[in-house]
Design goal:
heterodimer; A: Heat Shock Protein 90; five-stranded mixed β-sheet; three-stranded antiparallel β-sheet; rod-shaped; B: mainly alpha; 2 domains
Chain lengths: 595, 317
């Protein structure tokens, strides 16, 4: 995906770069450069003409453009060589043609300067030269007047013709002048020295004019003909064409760019629409997820509760199973032993029942009847005579009975011991199976109250509950229940001794913070018969009871149970008739069950 | 073309006589007061101008043949090269040479730098190679420092040439009396000298010796109205002049018209140094270039005028 994006962006960048590629400003600079060159060239030509006309007094203006021309030519060369061009060859050729044209023009102008100076000097001098002849003839003195005059006339004609020729050179005129020169040459021989010299100089200059005028004219026309301007125009048109090319290329690329950009925009919109749709989908899915989540949470809570219940059931079942096992064990073992106990007891019973010991009382009774004459009885009475023998047999029988009883008692004692052992063993097991579970104390207290309901009602007890807000705690539920049942039962019975009067039992429950942790405190307070001070110390001893039908196990087992749970059971009483306060303290952990 | 020349014919005649009208539009222009070259580079050039290390054997420098104290050339007919051999032509003056449109008698160098380039390698004049010259210059600590300060790329062939050329561009001899006259100081010239100038124009000397350098801006054949070389004889290769550059028949014996500024100081004259004095030179010019006859007084006046063209060298070493 990223790769595709990179490719697209690079295509876009490429197209954009292509539209920007050609910098038109360089074209305009080049055109300005060429225009400058053209101007320089035309001014140069104009100066040439002005020099020909005599309007320029010196040739500096024909030389000064050279440096500028060369510099501009260099710049054009740079433009052609360095910049990127379409028609590279055509431009190079146009440039070299232009260069050639400039060189040609320079050369021609050099020649022009040289020839023009000569021509101008001679032309200017001709009238003076003719005057000099005149002067020389005047001062000369000797010589044929006519010849002199004719020579002078000839010279003047030559002067005129030369002037005319210089304005409008033609071959006819040149031939004419040539002829006149020759004629003057022959005349010169007849002239005096000074005049001859003058004529010689004059003729030399006429010849110079004749020679130089067509040369200068030709040079001028050739200079005008040098196609410098045309070559510059060639360069210009090439560059313009190129510019047009670039323009159309840029145009083309702009179209490509537009098309591509449109495509990209369409793609973008398509993607955007998809994105929005998918956003909607995502939102919907999110909401569903949230709903599902909350439902899930709900279900989880339900499950947790179910698990809780299951756990509670399991715990109860386990407990029951444990109890059943113990019971079974006990039942089984004890049952076994009880059999022999029964048998021994039965045997002892039957032995005693069937004991011949009443015979002894009969004998004694008989003796007592005959106590006046016991001796005669024993010797003369038929019953009396058997009595010693009978008593002797009775002793044996009673001894045997005693033996049996002793024996059976021993067996019985053994059996009871055995039973005690069994029970003790089961009690040791009882220590191992303690089940900790999360307990809601208010409910537990209600359970304890319910178990003792009949007693509480019978004894007209009002229960006051002072519970603080206690969370679920991890405790051995049944052990605590056992203690509570015991304590409430004891309180109920303590208040029951003085029945007929309403009593009040206060139940308090809170959690106290101690240095070494938290403790659950349950207080059972009654306003019953109270506890005598001398009994306080023996309260929890095994077998101690103040009740007629009590067995003394209750508080003892409660204290044991409390200790088993790492807690304490304490009793307090102000004395008989002052009621009693039983405080159960247990270290606790707050249940963190399935939050 | 012909129509316009017919119309302008009277103007032509008028214009030619109009030259002597006013001091404003004279064919000779006064020198610029300064060409404003880079002073740091000119200073390096000044030192290099006298630097004998530019020659192969360290015997000659530019100043050996172009002594600025002696009018910008030596006073010899031909100069003496690094090996004691005579050069082919008389040394032209370096003063105001920056105003010449080409350099050398036959105009083969288009710029001062090209002239320096050629002379250093010329087998008679300095006979050196540029690599050696650059090395020699680079060995000198002072040159290294000054080049580093004035040029970005330090000591190179182009920079050495540029430095010397920059120095030569400072050798503009402004404030000649004639220039002061041209600028409006009517009393800078005496009457005879003014007459000399008038004659200079009248006889047509000014047709070639014109412009800001009183010449130096065109080529001309030596022997326009007469065959100078036929008279002088002993033709050498140098006498062919421009023909050696262009190869054209019409360029035989064509030379650059020398500038006449400081001409009073640059004897002997012409490319062959045959004219020992100005009078001799003026004589030759009248005969072979002008084809005119002039009186002694006129020639003397012209010589007087020529003497007013001597200016001041602004930077004296």
């Amino acid at each position: 995906m990223a790769g595709v994006a990179v490719v697209l962006i690079s295509i876009l960048a490429f197209l954009y770069a292509k539209t920007r590629e050609h910098d038109a400003s360089s074209y305009f600079e080049n055109v300005a450069l060429l225009r400058q060159l053209k101007q320089l060239d035309s001014r140069w030509e104009l100066d040439v003409l002005k020099s020909r006309m005599g309007l320029n007094s010196n040739y500096d203006s024909l030389v000064d453009p050279l440096s500028d021309l060369n510099q501009l030519r260099e710049e054009v060369h740079v433009v052609v060589a360095s910049q990127k061009h379409f028609a590279v060859e055509a431009l190079a050729k146009a440039n070299s043609d232009f260069h050639g044209a400039v060189l040609e023009k320079t050369r021609l102008i050099e020649h022009f300067k040289s020839q023009n100076s000569i021509l101008r000097n001679s032309l200017v001098f001709l009238p003076t030269a003719a005057d000099d002849i005149q002067e020389a003839m005047k001062s000369g003195g000797e010589g044929d007047r006519v010849v002199l005059a004719r020579a002078m006339a000839s010279a003047r004609k030559l002067l005129l013709d030369s002037m005319v020729y210089s304005q409008a050179p033609s071959d006819d005129k040149a031939a004419e002048i040539q002829m006149e020169l020759e004629a003057l040459e022959t005349t010169k021989a007849k002239l005096p020295a000074a005049a001859a010299e003058g004529v010689g100089i004059f003729s030399a200059h006429v010849r110079t004019v004749l020679r130089e005028q067509p040369v200068v004219n030709e040079l001028l026309s050739r200079i005008a003909a040098v196609p410098v301007a045309a070559r510059i125009d060639d360069l210009d048109s090439l560059l313009s064409n190129e510019q047009r090319e670039y323009g159309s290329q840029a145009e083309r690329y702009r179209w490509y760019l537009l098309a591509f950009a449109t495509a990209l925009a369409a793609l973008f919109f398509y993607a955007a629409i998809n994105l929005i749709r998918s956003h909607g989908v995502i939102n919907r899915v999110n909401q569903e997820l949230q709903r599902a989540n909350s439902t899930l949470e709900q279900r989880v809570l339900e499950r947790t509760d179910e698990l809780h219940e299951a756990q509670t059931e399991l715990v109860t079942t386990a407990r029951r199973a444990g109890m059943a096992e113990i019971a079974n064990n006990v039942l089984h073992n004890v049952g076994n032993v009880l059999n022999s106990v029964n048998i021994s007891a039965g045997l002892i019973g039957s032995t005693l029942r069937d004991s011949k010991s009443p015979g002894l009382s009969n004998a004694i009774q008989l003796m007592n009847e005959h106590s006046a004459d016991l001796g005669a009885f024993l010797t003369h009475d038929e019953k009396g005579r058997v009595l010693p023998r009978y008593l002797g047999k009775l002793v044996v029988v009673l001894a045997t009975e005693q033996e049996i009883i002793v024996r059976e008692l021993k067996s019985l004692t053994n059996s009871v011991d055995h039973i005690k052992d069994i029970v003790a063993t089961q009690q040791s097991y009882a220590g191992v199976t303690s089940v900790i579970e999360a307990v809601r104390l208010p409910e537990l207290l209600e359970d304890a109250l319910r178990i003792n309901a009949t007693g509480l009602t019978r004894h007209q007890v009002t229960t006051v509950k002072e519970y603080s807000d206690v969370p679920e705690l991890l405790l051995d539920k049944h052990l605590v229940l056992q203690i509570l049942v015991n304590l409430i039962g004891n309180a109920s019975q303590a208040m029951g001794s003085a029945s007929g009067i309403p009593h009040r039992m206060t139940l308090r429950m809170d959690i106290a913070e101690f240095v070494d942790g938290r403790r659950l405190r349950i207080v059972v307070e009654d306003d019953g018969e109270g506890i005598a001070p001398q009994n306080l110390t023996r309260l929890f001893v095994h077998g101690f009871t103040t009740r007629s039908n009590g067995h003394g196990f209750g508080l003892h087992s409660c204290a044991l149970a409390a200790r088993e749970m790492g807690g304490t059971l304490a009793a307090r009483s102000d004395g008989p008739g002052q009621g009693a306060v039983f405080t159960l303290e247990l270290p606790v952990e707050i249940a963190k069950v399935l939050q | 073309m012909r129509k316009t020349s017919a119309l302008l014919a009277p103007l032509l005649l008028l214009a030619t006589f109009a030259q002597a009208r006013a001091a404003l539009d004279e064919p000779i222009k006064p020198l610029p007061l300064a060409l404003n070259p880079n002073p740091a580079r000119a200073e390096i050039g000044r030192l290099l101008f006298s630097e004998v290390g530019l020659s192969a054997n360290g015997k000659v420098s530019c100043a050996s043949c172009h002594d600025v104290t002696k009018g910008g050339d030596d006073s010899r007919v031909h100069s003496i090269g690094f090996n004691g051999q005579p050069t082919a032509v008389n040394a032209p003056t370096v003063l105001n040479a920056a105003l010449n449109f080409t350099q050398f008698w036959n105009g083969r160098a288009g710029s001062l730098e090209t002239q320096i380039n050629d002379v250093v390698q010329n087998s008679i004049e300095m006979g050196s190679k540029w690599t050696e010259v650059v090395a020699t210059v680079a060995r000198n600590e002072k040159y290294r420092a000054s080049f580093a300060a004035a040029y970005e790329d330090g000591i190179t062939k182009a920079n050495i040439q540029n430095a010397i050329a920059t120095y030569e561009r400072t050798l503009i001899t402004s404030n000649s009396r004639f220039d002061r006259y041209l600028r409006g100081e009517r009393n800078a010239l005496s009457d005879d000298e003014k007459t000399g100038y008038a004659k200079f124009k009248q006889y047509g000397c000014v047709a070639c010796h014109q412009g800001v350098n009183v010449g130096g801006n065109m080529f001309q054949k030596f022997g326009v109205m007469g065959d100078y070389f036929a008279r002088r004889g002993k033709l050498t290769e140098a006498d062919l002049g421009r023909f050696l550059v262009t190869g054209e028949e019409s360029d035989k014996h064509v030379f650059k018209v020398p500038g006449l500024r400081n001409v009073a100081l640059t004897a002997p004259y012409f490319h062959d140094g045959t004219a020992a004095t100005l009078d001799d030179a003026v004589e030759v010019m009248f005969e072979y270039q002008l084809g005119r006859v002039a009186s002694k007084e006129d020639k003397a006046a012209i010589v007087l005028f020529l003497n007013t063209l001597t200016g001041e060298v602004v930077h004296t070493p």
